[in-house]
Amino acid sequence: MKAYKYCLNYDLVIRPLSRSRIYAPNKQQLNDPFEGTVTRKIFDDYEQIKHLLSPSAYEYKINLHKKLFIQIGYLGIYSLSKTWNNELLWVHYADTHKGFCIEYEKDKLILDKTRTKIFPKIIKIKYSKKPPVYSLKDADNATEEQLLLRLLKKLICTKSWSWKDEKEIRVLFKENGEQEINSNAIKSIIFGAFASDENINNTISIMSDKIKYYKIEIAKNNYGLLKKRL
């Protein structure tokens, strides 16, 4: 399956990409103000059953969930789309067609040598009309690793219904910042319809000749985007 990254800044993206490096921001650096929104019912739930727990057990559970919420705030999130021909994504993320789009082979993105039990991890986004709720039933009979995965589904894998047309896929890393990926996952670069010849030529000179290059063409008789091989 293919996945696509819309980009606007050639200088910041292309040279690292030529070395199989990408940048994965944390959730606070993303463009959705509701990123990571969740109703944290878990703390009220534990308060209600506090009398059933020993003081040490209650403190452990509360502190564990606080730690997990903080940990998720430091994750690296590399956002991709399932499609290369979304008109709005070209406008919002690729500088109104002056930028470019990277085509990846999704299942080859993660380097085996960097894989741990949880991270890196590839996930699909679920879109919802209401923020998710994280409650005691989500935490019931779970190990710390299972709790983290359940929290990820709520905080990082769920977005507002308004974003549904982005058809987003995310690669999650344990920490934000520059990350190494599998160079074999990079399949092509698609330049926007208004990408300059200078940016196109510089990109091709920097990147390997093992990948393909395309440029967007605007369809004449419908609201469609085409791509032409360079």
Textual characterization of the structure:
- There is one protein chain.
- This protein has one domain.
- By secondary structure, it is an alpha/beta fold.
- The mean pLDDT is 93.
- The two termini are 23 Å apart.
- It is built from seven helices and 14 strands.
- It has helices at residues 10-18, 41-48, 55-73, 87-93, 136-139, 144-155, 197-206, and strands spanning 2-7, 21-24, 39-40, 76-81, 100-105, 121-124, 126-128, 133-134, 158-160, 168-173, 177-180, 186-191, 212-218, 225-229.
- The chain is elongated, with a radius of gyration of 21 Å.
- Helices cover 30% and strands 28% of the residues.
- The protein has a five-stranded mixed sheet with strand order 1-5-12-13-14, with helices on one face.
Short description:
This protein has 230 residues and is α/β, with parallel strands linked by helices. The chain has helices at residues 10-18, 41-48, 55-73, 87-93, 136-139, 144-155, 197-206; strands at residues 2-7, 21-24, 39-40, 76-81, 100-105, 121-124, 126-128, 133-134, 158-160, 168-173, 177-180, 186-191, 212-218, 225-229. The longest helix is centred in the N-terminal third of the chain and has 19 residues, at 55-73.
